[in-house]
Each structure stands twice: as C-alpha cells, then as structure tokens.
Amino acid sequence: MSKGYDPAGEGAKMSYRDAMSYGDYLGLNDLLGAQGPLSDAHDEMLFIIQHQTSELWMRLALHELDAARGHIAAARFGEAFKMITRVARIFEQLNNAWDVLRTMTPSDYTTFREDLGASSGFQSHQYRLIEFLVGNRNTAMLKVHEHRPELHAKLVQELDRPSLYHVALRALEDALSITLPAQAFVQDGPHIASDAIIEAWTRVYKSPETHWQLYELAEKLVDLEDYFRRWRFNHVTTVERIIGFKRGTGGTSGVKYLRRMLEVELFPELWHLRSGL
Predict the structure, then answer these.
(1) Is this structure's pTM higher than 0.85?
(2) What is the DSSP string of 45-62?
C-alpha cells in the first residue's frame, strides 16, 4: 500500500527530538494554552482570541513606533517611513478583525458577558502606550493602571520621552529654521494644536518639492492616523451592534465614550492645514 509523499526523500528534517522546532521557536505551547474561557459559551473563545491577537498586533505596533521615533530623531527618514507604513497596515489588520467579532450576535454575547466581571479593553495598557507614544497623552488614564505598578511605571516612563509627533515637529523646526511654541512640546499632557504649527506644515505642503522628506513624513503620519481612526470607528460600530447603548464592562458609558474618542486628533495641524491650501 502506498504511504504517500514523504518529504524526507527530498531532505526535509523529520525528527526534532534534539533540535528546535517551529512550535518551540514560537512558544506555541504557551501561546495556544493562553485561552481560558470562564463559561461554557461557544463564542467566548472567539472573544478571547480576538482580543489576544489584537494585543499581539499592538505589541508589534509599539515595537515599530518606538523605532520610528528614534529614526526620525536621527534624521533617518527612509527607515522611519517604512515602519510607520507597517503600523498603518497593522491597524488595517486590527480593523479587519472587527469583521470576525461582528459574527457574534447580542444573544451570543449575553451568554458569557457576566463572566468578564469588570475586565474591559478600556484597561489595555498597550493601547494606552500607543496613544502616549504617538502624542495623545491623557494623564487621567494612568489611574486605570495603578493596580499593576510595573505597567503604570511603563506609562509614566513614556511620558518622560518626546512623542512621535514631538520628534516630527523638531524635524520640522530644523528643516525650516524656525522655533515652534514651547506648548507644542509638552510631554505630560495632550498635544495642543497651534496656528504656528499649521503655518509651518503649510509651508511644506505648498512647496513639497523643496521639502520632500518632511512632506512625505507628514503624509505618513496622516496615513497612520487615517487607519487608526477607521479602527476606532469600527470599534464603535461593533460595540453598538453587539451591546447597543449598555454601559461597558469596565464602567464606561460604552458607545457614548467610544464616540467621544472619535473626536480625538493625533496630529491635528496636519488635518487642519488642508482647509487653507
């Protein structure tokens, strides 16, 4: 009887008793054993994996954004552009994931929602780090992480560093030989939009051939925020579709809170300048 195709005949390694395997390298035992549903509800596994994979993508986004920040500060724009583009595509992946979660109906969710207790995506420290890193620094959100001192410390440490937008604005200053208002570089609070910054970026947009690297940097940041906004919008839509206007498990107002977040601008001047071109 034929045994079928044997890859060993072409040199494929078939025994990993004394070698590192695919599963070993990726730590799949730990990764695939990290799902621990608290109920017998079928859809709880979907809910857990949706959020775990989102956290993995956010971990990569943080890795890329931190590196991009360093490259911009060192005027290594080409490398930074590649990384920012990658993060935009990460958020495209996060966006597509909502389509999977939306296959869960309100009735499905009610079968295990009470088992979540007060846990909520609102408490994601990685999402908060992404916000802080790009420049949306609402220090009131630190309190949510006080129960985990090591995570709280990471967030506080991030507030001691210039944001991604800060280093972009420093590059803008250097290229145009200007000095932007000090309020543009506040590290322990949200970015405050400035007419002076709009004017500076407008100079770049009116003469892109003269300031091509800055022009491309600006568009990479806009692209990043574009995908980030889409992710937030789809989050709102998914939550409204599944729980309506109930309060979130973490105590927020749910859809109303998420809609308020849609109004937050990461790089406001890059959007506002378009009206004046």
Answers:
(1) yes
(2) HHHHHHHHHHHHHHHHHH
